[in-house]
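Now for a sample.
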Amino acid sequence: MRRWLTAAGLVMALGAGSGACASEKKEEKTFVGADEVCGDAFAGPLAEMVEKATGDKLFFAKSPKGMERVVAALKDGYESGRPWAAGDTLCLLRPKGAKQTDKGGVKFSMYSPQDVEGEGLSAGQDLYTMGVQSVVGRGNAALFFECVTPQLKGSDKTPLRIQGGFGRGESDAPDTREYRNLNMTILHAVSLKLVKALDCENNGGLPKDPVLTPK
């Protein structure tokens, strides 16, 4: 149902980076904690949430310019006039020592109106009440919201439709309501950073604190 969100987690066809480092000194520069992995994407208490959700403490360091790429991609998508656009990855989470397939992270794209019509879900997913639509699964979460911003001409009449997704990658964390809420809490917090960068009116309709209420 979703363009890039699956019940198994967030799937992103991106390069994973280089292999093992030649020395411990090099390794220390290559792998960082969740609070540094993509600049300040997960700064503060959010870093501990990411570590808990993924079950990992060190990640392959990525560019701190993820937010800039996402904002540019969403603007380009909106200005193209197409009903949806692929967007970009804000942060790729690849744990130290992980297999090539073990990738999580956060991505934002522009969704088509038909993507939130009806309430059909993939197996194992639940609808929440936050935003235009919010979906949570064992290892992932998706959040749909709209942005009216002075940065985009015409968005007061036709808002920018944003779909955010978080995937924790491979994890031994249990499939409980606590961990499903954790997935959504992480995505909500990063989404608030995006609406700030885009100057979205009324935080894109998102509450200051996450609403974790299943439908």
About this structure: DSSP finds four helices and ten strands in the chain. The beta strands are 5-6, 9-10, 31-32, 59-60, 85-93, 104-110, 126-128, 133-136, 140-147, 160-167. The CA atoms of residues 100 and 188 lie 27 Å apart.
